[in-house]
Amino acid sequence: MIALCEPENRQALLSAAAQALDTARGAGLAVDPVSVRERSADESEWRDVWKQFFRATRVGRRFTVRPSWDPGQPAQGEFVIDLDPGRAFGTGAHPSTRIGIGLAEDLHDQECQVRRFLDLGCGSGILSIVATRLWPEARSFAIDNDAEATSCSEENFERNQVRGVTIVTGTLDEADGAFDLVLANIQADVLCQLALPMATKIVPGGHAILSGILLEQVDEVLAAYAKAGFALDRRQDDGEWCGLLVRCEAAAS
To answer: In 63-119, which residue ranges form alpha helices assigned H by DSSP?
Structure first.
């Protein structure tokens, strides 16, 4: 095991390690002999060490997300998203993002026409980039209530040569007109609050991709969207997370 700490926290770290070893011994685990080695580390040595854990990664069936320090070798015909982790959520590593990308691919493969889409709670902008790759002729909006997120999205759109996306810092109320598709990777309680207003922003027969839902929250989200006039088209699970592809069928009740 390797642990890094400030010099003044050395003794607390050693005490925690000793306690963990005592617990393991008490449970009958063979942990001895134990040796501890210490050395000083310069900031430049560990500052970027986390980068080794974020490499070019295949996400979904046709996307590769790659950071600037690992350009990778994407397969022929692969969609590449150049994106560094940082200020806003959404790198493709979290199950909720993977689910959102997978459901967007499913919708595309059903030859669903998307002329206008909305990325609600856009974060890093990754779902907008995915949607513009799948539906390159679509007009699109990316909205987040965090100015840091919309700034991050703007940088990622520029980096990935995404054009024609209107970026707004605000809420669903700022999205003008109606959309064929809404992508929303947001926590479940917020998704439930958005069900009724979202129904007014989607054309009849249009879709919403809802992600960021824990398995135990699925029934609550489905009930909220059924009440708002949506029907379930597809459900996708990934570990403890779930995503829903729902279709707007009727006016909200």
So the answer is: 95-109
pTM, to two decimals = 0.76
| Residue-level pLDDT at 45 | 52
3-state secondary structure of 112: coil
CA gap 225, 142 in Å, rounded: 22
Residue 130 CA to residue 105 CA, distance in Å, equals: 9
Q: Is 136 left (phi over 0), alpha (psi -120 to 50) or beta?
A: alpha
Query: What ranges in 51-208 are assigned the alpha helix state H?
Result: 95-109, 126-134, 147-159, 188-199
pLDDT at 54 over 70: no
Q: Which domains does the chain have, with CATH numbers?
A: 7-47 (no CATH), 98-248 (3.40.50.150)
Nearest to 48 by CA among 73, 92, 84, 93: 84
* Residue 239 CB coordination number (10 Å): 10
CB-based contact 85:67 (threshold 8 Å): yes
Q: What is the mean pLDDT of the chain?
A: 87
How far apart are alpha carbons 57 and 199 in whole angstroms?
34
Each residue's pLDDT tens digit, 160-207: 999 889 999 999 999 988 999 999 999 999 999 999 999 999 999 999
Residue 122 CA to residue 145 CA, distance in Å, equals: 9
